[in-house]
């Protein structure tokens, strides 16, 4: 094969190749070996599919429907280039009785459009919006394999891992964020054997490049001097990007800015005092001194008083994660989550916010049962001891390393406890009169 990414060489008999591929597929599912004429890219994908526990008689599962699907699509970056996809591929799909499909970076289909009769046939195998078509879910297929490899790929007939998909042929190309290079998803054309041609692979590749160019025009890199950005996830000392400058903040100043960014209406001195300090004997003088130091650091124009508030909009990375989580965009929320919020902070309001954010993500992960997302969390520093996530991962991807790690964690949990220590009763400090009725602001 001159080009290993193209399914059929010119002059190849498609019917004969289908028969040969079916024999090869049966050999692989029975004996685990991949005979000729299977392309290397397909053979490697079959092996990945088998390692992920995909069965040849499986089917795709629909994970998002109705409002959840709509919210997720609205938040996804590829929504901005759907008009371009329709303009470049819509007529081709309709006239050729094909389908235009777009998936996210984890192989979840976001849009499936095209010829009505072809759509009805595709519905029978759950090739529908909201369904998971990653390699780890349904094995070898063009959109799932394209995002797994990060490059355009064509999958012909019985090259598909799942038998019920083998009557179809598809070609897909990943779409990258033009500024970061991160894979956002893939654009796919799906139909009959006629798509097993070098032109279809070149076509989706060109459409994906056009989408990346369009995204670069629609969302140019943000100028830091035009906005204030607060990075506080996964770090004890936040960083503020303001007017083209990067300002490293102390832990206390980090806590103050996180809370003020979350409360644009402002907080009174008593509210801020309760939010920041566990020790109720800390006086307002201490807080005013911290705020004065912060004002000198960031400039007098950013921080106002009575109530304490920020005079410009500050976009916090924690707020981005929360917003995406509320919209049901779990994958997008996890992509923006770089670790717990100010992990060393003991400020009461920050602790609540950190716990709520982490618990929201964990709950979504465990409920969605996505092996890729669960694995990302479990292997991150903040998830390596998270036994509930490891249990969820073992349920959907019961590989030997996963089972071994889960067994080790559960063994640690079952260790006998050490000798009990007598309870320590701390004397509660007196509460200044101005703070007895103050409510701690909710994060």
UniProtKB/TrEMBL annotation:
A Gene Ontology BP annotation from the UniProt entry: regulation of DNA-templated transcription
Pfam families noted in UniProt: GAF
Region (Disordered): 418-443
Swiss-Prot/TrEMBL keywords: DNA-binding, Transcription, Transcription regulation
Domain of life according to the entry: Bacteria
Statement: the UniProt record of this protein carries the keyword DNA-binding: yes
Biased composition (Low complexity): 433-443
Keyword Transcription regulation set for record: yes
Protein name: Transcriptional regulator
Species annotation: Streptomyces bungoensis
